[in-house]
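Worked Example 4.2. Consider the chain below.
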Amino acid sequence: MNSQDLKNALQSLDGKVVTSAGTLTSNIDSLLVDYYGNQPLVISAAESAPDSGPNQVRVSGRSSFMQVPDLPVDARFSPSATVSP
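Applying the procedure from the previous section yields the following structure tokens:
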């Protein structure tokens, strides 16, 4: 996954960024399985944070984690070192 693919996958739609298994990389898939019960990661009130950098997407907003609702989140995503076909 390159930088543009990452930006496209993490675009806000109706104020939410949603990523589910198979959307990004196997590392994110593992996180979703292990900590989210294979449910999607949803960042509401999502805003692209300024100065994300050319090889990084930074999203700020609110999300639930381990059954704790409405937590502040500042997520930073970087493209994988290898590109899958």
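The chain is about 20% helix and 35% strand. The mean pLDDT is 86. Compare this with Example 4.1 before moving on.
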